[in-house]
């Protein structure tokens, strides 16, 4: 595997997030946010809440995790993250408490629904918070913001970005049970990858039933698949796909690269890119749709493939098994430390992993992000030969390789592109490092 990737692990960047050492001015009041969505959408909300609270000189109440009907995970902040470490890391930058003082709650009859709630539009600029939220905060001393997913623009002043960097890359650490389990599986993957010096690749495969159903794509086209997908859509999104005038266009979805890759397609792509059958793979995924049938060809191509369920005993996974966010956190840790990360469907999981891996590996992330529009053309071309297909795959891998180091551009997320807001180029002088993160 060492010869398959052109760039060495790491680049010419290093973390350089400044932390304040002085005291904080008197707080302007308390902010309570409700983080909705899955593990990494909640992570976005947490980091953005830290940035907003710091910018408004407010005290942030540990974010509440909204119980979602799809994720069905009742986990609290401290179940997922090390709360004490989070508060300690940010103590000189943002005040964080686990609850609002009783004297203040008394004003609202100890009922959160009596607290003024801002419903803020998506991707609001930080200036909106200063102009609209801050005056009400000063008046009430306690406000709610719910929902809070994606309620802050990707582009913001350096101080806001610094707080986002500090929250995401330094303050948020998984809780000890999750961290221990994740690191244990990383060690086991390295043991099983001894032939390659402990190096393994991780693949984030989104081929769960709900993902396949939501995509409105067609795979084998059989009656069972059709019935399964209709039932899954109705369970998860009652009436959304059966509204009058709604037309499903699976062919157009595939051509436009919107269909989740099957395990077979992922296997063919990786073999075409030069990964042979003794490559160790960690598969991060939920329950694969029609798993026995769809996973068989991938396992045949990569017999050393592992999942967390294969690496850990049922007893070890028992504390996490019925909690989707905790299971995702374990997957996240194993993927974070892999030699190469392969993302097949986009979403918040690869969005955060891409940036986190760049932050850990000095700016360079060995991540394969296939062009699914091109893949659809290659896979659907029944006349394409293996030599031609492999040439296309090697070109696609080289393109991903060249994108390992990328600087944040306008409207890019700092959670995917930590350079230059959270990291400094090693050739810069100390003065320029300080300037770039101030």
Verbal overview:
The structure is a single chain. This protein has helices at residues 39-55, 77-80, 83-90, 102-107, 126-140, 158-171, 176-192, 209-215, 223-236, 250-255, 263-272, 291-301, 308-311, 314-317, 324-336, 348-360, 372-380, 386-402, 430-437, and strands at 13-15, 30-35, 59-61, 64-65, 95-97, 117-118, 142-145, 201-204, 281-284, 305-306, 340-343, 367-368, 423-425. Among the domains are: 30-173, 3-Layer(aba) Sandwich (Rossmann fold); 209-259, no CATH class. It is an alpha/beta fold and 438 residues long. Strands 2, 3, 4, 5, 6 and 7 form a six-stranded parallel β-sheet that branches. A five-stranded parallel β-sheet has the order 10-9-8-11-12. The chain has a two-stranded antiparallel ribbon with strand order 1-13.
Q: Can you tell me the overall shape?
A: globular
CATH topology heading of the domain at 30-173: Rossmann fold
Q: What kind of oligomer do you see?
A: single chain
Instruction: Please state the average pLDDT score.
Output: 92
The tally of strands reads 13
Structural class: alpha/beta
Number of helices: 19
Strand content: 5-15%
Overall radius of gyration:
23 Å
Low-confidence stretches: 428-438
Q: What profile does the largest beta sheet have?
A: 6 strands, parallel
Pfam families: O-FucT (PF10250)
Keywords: Carbohydrate metabolism, Fucose metabolism, Glycosyltransferase, Transferase
Organism: Helianthus annuus
Family: Belongs to the glycosyltransferase GT106 family.
């Amino acid at each position: 595997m060492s010869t398959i990737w052109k760039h060495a692990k790491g680049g010419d960047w290093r973390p350089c997030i400044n932390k304040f050492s002085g005291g904080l001015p008197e707080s302007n009041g308390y902010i309570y946010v409700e983080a909705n969505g899955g593990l990494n959408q909640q992570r976005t909300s947490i980091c953005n809440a830290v940035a907003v609270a710091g910018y408004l000189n407010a005290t942030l109440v540990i974010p509440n995790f909204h119980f979602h009907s799809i994720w069905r995970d009742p986990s609290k902040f401290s179940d997922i993250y090390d709360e004490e470490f989070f508060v300690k890391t940010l103590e000189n930058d943002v005040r964080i408490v686990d609850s609002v003082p009783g004297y203040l709650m008394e004003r609202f009859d100890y009922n959160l629904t009596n607290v003024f709630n801002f419903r803020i539009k998506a991707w609001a600029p930080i200036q909106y918070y200063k102009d609209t939220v801050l005056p009400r905060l000063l008046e009430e001393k306690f406000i709610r913001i719910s929902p809070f997913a994606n309620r802050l623009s990707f582009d913001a002043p350096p101080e806001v970005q610094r707080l986002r960097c500090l929250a995401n890359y330094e303050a948020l650490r998984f809780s000890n049970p999750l961290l221990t389990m994740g690191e244990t599986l990383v060690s086991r993957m390295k043991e099983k990858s001894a032939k390659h010096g402990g190096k393994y690749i991780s693949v984030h495969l989104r081929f769960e039933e709900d993902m396949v159903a939501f995509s409105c794509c067609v795979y084998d086209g059989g009656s069972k698949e059709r019935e399964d997908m209709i039932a899954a859509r109705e369970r998860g999104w009652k009436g959304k796909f059966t509204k009058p005038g709604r037309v499903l266009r699976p062919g157009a979805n595939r051509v436009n690269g919107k269909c989740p890759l099957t395990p077979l397609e992922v296997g063919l792509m990786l073999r075409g890119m030069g990964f042979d059958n003794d490559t160790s793979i960690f598969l991060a995924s939920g329950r694969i749709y029609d798993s026995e049938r769809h996973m068989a060809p991938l396992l045949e191509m990569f017999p050393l493939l592992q999942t967390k369920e294969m690496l850990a005993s049922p007893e070890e996974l028992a504390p996490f098994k019925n909690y989707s966010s905790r299971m995702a956190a374990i997957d996240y840790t194993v993927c974070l430390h892999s030699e190469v990360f392969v993302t097949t469907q986009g979403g918040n999981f690869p969005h955060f992993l891409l940036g986190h891996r760049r932050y850990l590996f000095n700016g360079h992330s060995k991540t394969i992000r296939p062009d699914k529009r091109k893949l659809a053309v290659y896979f659907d071309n029944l006349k394409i030969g293996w030599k031609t297909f492999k040439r296309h795959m090697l070109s696609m891998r080289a393109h991903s390789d060249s994108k390992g180091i990328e600087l944040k551009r306008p409207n890019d997320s700092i959670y995917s592109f930590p350079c230059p807001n959270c990291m400094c180029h090693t050739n810069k002088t100390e003065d320029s490092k300080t300037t770039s993160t101030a």
